[in-house]
Amino acid sequence: MSKASKSLVIVESPTKAKTIRKFLGKNYMVESCMGHIRDLPQSAKDIPEKFKKEKWASLGVNPDKDFAPIYCIPKNKTKIVSELKKKLKDADELILATDEDREGESISWHLLEVLNPQVPVKRMVFHEITKPAIEKALKNFRDIDKNLVKAQEARRILDRLVGYTISPLVWKKIAYGLSAGRVQSVAVKLISEKEMQRLVFKRSSYWDLSAKLKKGTQEFDAKIQITSGKRVAQGKDFDGTTGDLLKDKKADVILLDQKQAEKLAKDLGTEAWKVTEVEESPFTRKPYPPFITSSLQQDAGRKLNLGARDTMRAAQSLYEKGFITYMRTDSTFLSQQAIDAARDSIKSLYGKDYMPKEPRLYNAKKSKGAQEAHEAIRPSGDVWATPDDTGLKDVEFKLYDLIWKRTMASQMSDAKQTRVGVKIEAGKSIFSASGMTIEFPGFLRAYVEGSDDADVALENREVNLPKMTKGDSLKCDGVSAKDHETKPPARFTEASLIQMMEKEGIGRPSTYAPTIATIQERGYVRKDGNALVPTFTALVLSKLLSRYFPEYVDTSFTSAMEQSLDEVADGDLDSIEYLGKIYLGKTGLRALVEKQEKNIDADEARSIEFENLSKYSIRVGRYGAYVCRPDGEEEVCASLPDALAPADMTAEAIEKLIDQKINGADALCKDEKSGLPIYVLSGRFGPYVQLGDVNSDDAKPKRVSIPATIKPEEVTPDIAKFLISLPKVLGQNPDSKKDVSIGLGRFGPFVLHDGDFRSITKAYSLFTITFEETLEILSQPKKGRGTVKVIKELGKDPSGTTDIQVLDGKYGPYIKWGKKNVSIPENKKAEDIEAKEAWTLITDKFGPDVTSGDKPKKKAAKKTAKKAKKVVKADIEEAPTKTAKKKIVTRKKKS
Asked: What burial class does residue 59 get, using C-beta atoms within 10 Å of its C-beta: 0-12 exposed, 13-18 middle, 19+ buried?
């Protein structure tokens, strides 16, 4: 009897492998390679010995030999590669089933290069992970697309060349650890430019009038438009940089001040109010196209308050579990299968009136240089499960619900609405009122952009006015004068930044989320609510790049790079020739950096001046941003808090920081227990209370951050004493006999019991919470991304120092040993793992000499850091990461 043939199928992730495994028979071994198995060197130690002495070695790419890359297998992938090679020995064919985009194609190519299979190799692609799609893919193999591989490799090399060539210059001229990147620097520039617009913005005040009118028993509001023949000025009529009326508006509008507005309101109270015009305008609205990557990220941000990275993480999981089609796409195209599924669902859920006679066809969207297009993001399969029938929970449920509704709506009937506009005369003034009614909701029954609940949104969208005709008299129940102030340009949110990047052709669907995450992780941008606020470091970096490397932060130039990479993917452009044009020659990046290094003055590069604060100099140094003011022949400097937005900085705030530096702070009160003074201070990381003085460089007085809900000037002695007392034991848990305490950490107030941290929600106050209330919080099931359940306690490790546990987390069961985690093999049940087997898995992953990491190294770590070479880990933007920062309060420097 002949042996049955075996096929080794390789995909990117364990979840994807698990889903595909359900659709294939016992003759298929489905394994995960956990993403890329090879990459450019991440640090100096990754560079092979034979290349270490080469001048270009730190780049990981040899620009003078056709940009030949050095590919290395990262340490955390060596075991995976060994396992795949072992599995391949038992296989009769290799099936590469990674995603059908540039990254997926590249992963397959690297697998082919590393595994060097001696059996037939097939490339399998699909856009959704369902049984019909997998079965179809098994009948339609193809070869690896070399053009897609070249395009991905060219992008990777280009990012490395830009990041690793410009970043060292930034280190020299501004501060070590900063970085530049091909896409990240453009995003930082966009956000910085918006902040500079806010910085020069001058607020303007204007007044208008609102009237409460009544027709019969129905009340409505009307707003003044014209008085004495001139239009009343509104916010749009002002120049944001000067605060004055726009020149072309001055002759046409009247700017009301408080006195004029209040007098006019009083006079209108005695006037007769009459309808002069009624206009009804029926209109229809077509549904939105189905989601592409960028529109999904934008809507998830608006509706679900999800960041781009969290959105893509949840979408990736939905795709790998078989619920949606591939989530990185520029295409709004829907297949016939999708159209049929949508129309069937619409008919059964909403009725035939909500289904147009003909299907809606959406052509593949082509933004500037759109990437190779898949189908739009939609529910997978030919029969779509309703959100309630999926069994999904939390973020995944909400995101699937959003995708399901949007795709359904894209195939539904138009919404029919009527807009009503009414003009009303009173004396020499004209007021207007507007209303809107929905005659037929159409697609709005399923999906209203910006709202979670379509039915509620429909009610809120309707503004009903009483039935009025020209000549009708109205009763006025009062006219009020209202003061308004113009608003500065809104800062970018993740959603609006993605929208801008897509519009300008900056980056691609796969890069939006990582880019936004990168600029936050590197300290160039922080989130204030949903707004992206640049740091002073971002402004300084953007200034330097815009002045000396304008092309590389220009949106058109960056977009042109993306288009060139698309041409490589289409086989219309030679990647080596293109990279040479960008990097080599007299006008290339390498020569430009060498030239500009001589032209850049370091002191000027690391400083920035604001027109409205010309007395001060803002600089960026090794430990962050600080501000300096002339003080005789010298100058005095103070650190700028990270939480201070550049556009919100005032002379008063700066003077306060500098005064605190010169004179020190007066003690607010004294701690009865220690007898030490308690100060309210402001540092780089925001306001805090401090117990005692700093008497030497090594002194580390106790400091506790002041909660964001309390302003520093509102801190009373009682509040200060309470904060200094934290963490504070409130009592012992009656069951465990262990302390229950409260404290204030990085993520806000918390309750701590036996190593279990729980957030104190807004329902309680840190200052008044009782012991009974802490027990109530502890009794609730733990929520959040970090939620884990203990499956099994395995006791101490062989050294007897650290506990080993089997836990069940967000991504399934795993072994926890100190600060290290180890996955449990898929063929093992978590409940069956014993201590010996767990220790074997730990040492297999980390080596026999590994430590748990519970005891942090001190002196040895510092020595190692000093010896480390200045070639550090890179990421998608290909620029070295920052080193750890030390706190600095002030600096002095002679002028």
From this structure: buried
Instruction: State both tokens at 2.
Output: 């002949």
Cα dihedral sign, 241-242-243-247: negative
> Which token pair is 318?
């939905």
Residue whose C-alpha is closest to residue 126's, from 139, 113, 115, 117 = 139
Distance CA 444, CA 454 (A): 7
Give the chain's count of helices (H) and strands (E): 24, 33
CB-CB neighbours of 612 under 10 Å = 11
Around Cβ 597, how many Cβ atoms within 10 Å? 13
What is the amino acid identity at position 779? S
- Helix segments in 326-415, DSSP class H: 336-349, 394-410
Provide the token pair at 247.
């020149």
**Is the pLDDT assigned to residue 269 strictly greater than 60?**
yes
Whether 131 contacts 559, CB under 8 Å: no
3-state helix, strand, coil in the chain (%, to 5): 35, 25, 40
The sheet with strand 7-11 has its strands ordered as 28-32, 7-11, 93-96, 121-123
pLDDT digits (tens, 9 = 90+) for 300-336: 998 999 999 999 999 999 999 999 999 988 889 998 9
Question: SS3 for 605?
Answer: helix
d(C-alpha 654, C-alpha 640), whole Å:
8
Query: How many angstroms separate the CA atoms of 805 and 41, rounded?
Result: 35
Taking the C-alpha atoms of residue 210 and residue 837, their distance in angstroms, rounded to an integer, is 76
CB pairs under 8 A, 24+ apart, for 810-816?
810/785, 810/786, 815/841, 815/842
Question: Residue 49 burial by CB count (10 A; 0-12/13-18/19+): exposed, middle or buried?
Answer: exposed
By the 8 A CB rule, do 323 and 405 touch?
A: no
Q: What gap in Å lies between CA 562 and CA 292, rounded to an integer?
A: 18
CA distance 498 to 515: 10
Q: What beta strand segments (E) does 491-549 contain?
A: 525-528, 531-534
Residue in 164, 326, 354, 626 annotated catalytic:
326
Using alpha carbons, select from 215, 210, 209 the residue that is nearest to residue 475.
215
Torsion sign across C-alpha atoms 33, 34, 35, 41: negative
- Residue 476's φ and ψ, nearest 5 degrees, are -105, 125
Burial 159-179 (b: 16+ CB within 10 A, else e): bbbbbbbbbbbbeebbbebbb
**pTM (two decimals):** 0.77
| Residue 326 is a catalytic residue | yes
Backbone angles phi, psi at 88, to 5 degrees: -65, -30
Mean local confidence (pLDDT), 654-678: 81
pLDDT digits (tens, 9 = 90+) for 104-137: 999 999 999 999 999 999 999 999 999 999 999 9
Axis-axis angle for helices 575-583, 555-569 (nearest 10) = 160
Contact 661, 637 (CB under 8 A): yes
Token reading at 795 = 């006791």
The SS3 of residue 248 is helix
CA distance 154 to 147: 10
The whole-angstrom separation of Cα 157 and Cα 472 is 72
